[in-house]
Amino acid sequence: MSNPLLFLTPRLVGDRFEGHAIPLEMLKDLAALEALIKATAIWCYKEATHRKRQPRGFSDQICLKITEIKDGSAEAQIQLYNYTDQLIPESAQYCEKSRELIIGAINAATHDEDITSFLPPSLLIHFDRLGRNLQENEWIEFDPKNLTRKAILNQITRHKLLLASAQEEISEKLIQKGMIPAADQDNETFELQLSTGRKVKVFFSAQHRKTILDAFIEYDQGIRVSVEGIGRYDKKGNLRHIDSVEQLNILDPNDISTRLDEFRDLSNGWLGEGKGLAPNGAGLDWLDEGFQTLYPDDLPLPYLYPTAEGGIQAEWTVNEIETSLEINLENHRGVWHSLNMKTDIENSKKINLANNDGWQELVLSIKQIIGGGK
């Protein structure tokens, strides 16, 4: 085997990569990078030699390995290995040409230039897997030492590359919520009915079969599931189907995020006769984040309603005490009211949910009711 050659030093930027660490799921993207480099090198060979076939054993003779992870955020040192003395002499040249064309295509996407002047649409299909696991506010710099013109792969540039590809569909990681009105065990598919009423076909594997059947049986009771997996979209951004399921969970009937998502489609006048203000989208995001981060999992979830004034009303029934919290999505303040159905004792107060102290007050109030307090 020849001496390894330092081939590429992509820099992964984002909170998940601090401390020169790379999450395991990102290794799928780096494996897709190797496939793209090899495919492009073969294309370069055919273009240069005008031959229709690739060199025998070309893909098996070379290998890319991460040999070191450097700091700031995480810079992967990728070296090229040659595993045979029979490799044609020009092969290293084609691999290097491949690297330059790939960086050129990413650079073109970064700066809104012609992507296909570097790579043909047939090779751009590889970006279906390359960069798919990047989250928002994460990116890969493929030429980190170039301070004036960086080649950056993120969600935006990946979409540009895929739109220029020959592929009709684009894959994305997703989380979708809905109900399961139908399941086909033989073909391992089920229908996911979204909040809009639209049904999407989902392909699943055996480990999720029981959860799917449980949700299907309770479809009439409105049981919802959360599906995390890989979705297939057309180039206009419409979800066509879900290719695979990574996580599938049955949701609490009062799941906060699901209920709030149902309110996002409301428009002014939703109560009829011009009445009913639509909840503010930013306010719904704030309320969702508050419940997810500041409301303990072991406390009962409220049932949420939209109010005519554009706010949200949360209602709990615990220990014969009816409790409501009317939440203003604009100023993040709430009005609490509780009524003991046995003693007719009422309690009202204002809670400022704009800060953590207000959320803590809400949590303590719920715990007091659970404990039998007034």
Write up what this structure looks like:
- By secondary structure, the chain is α+β, with helices and mostly antiparallel strands.
- The relative contact order is 0.07.
- It has nine helices and 16 strands.
- It folds into three domains: 5-167, no CATH class; 171-250, Nucleic acid-binding proteins (OB fold (Dihydrolipoamide Acetyltransferase, E2P)), CATH 2.40.50.140; 256-370.
- The N and C termini lie far apart (78 Å).
- Helix 3 (91-110) packs across helix 5 (155-163) and helix 7 (256-263) packs antiparallel against helix 8.
- The radius of gyration is 27 Å and the shape is elongated.
Write the layout of secondary structure elements.
Blueprint: E1 5-8, E2 11-13, H1 26-49, H2 58-61, E3 62-71, E4 74-82, H3 91-110, H4 121-124, E5 139-141, E6 152-153, H5 155-163, E7 169-184, E8 189-193, E9 199-203, H6 209-217, E10 225-234, E11 239-250, H7 256-263, H8 281-294, E12 303-306, E13 312-318, E14 321-328, E15 333-340, E16 346-352, H9 356-370
Parallel strand pairs: 9-11
Antiparallel strand pairs: 1-4, 2-4, 2-5, 3-4, 5-6, 7-8, 7-10, 8-9, 10-11, 12-13, 13-14, 14-15, 15-16
Helix pairs in contact: 1-3, 3-5, 7-8
Spans of 5+ residues with little confidence (pLDDT < 50)?
Answer: none
Total discrete domains: 3
For the termini, the CA-CA separation is 78 Å
Question: Averaging pLDDT over every residue, what do you get?
Answer: 91
Structural classification? alpha+beta
Relative strand content: 25-35%
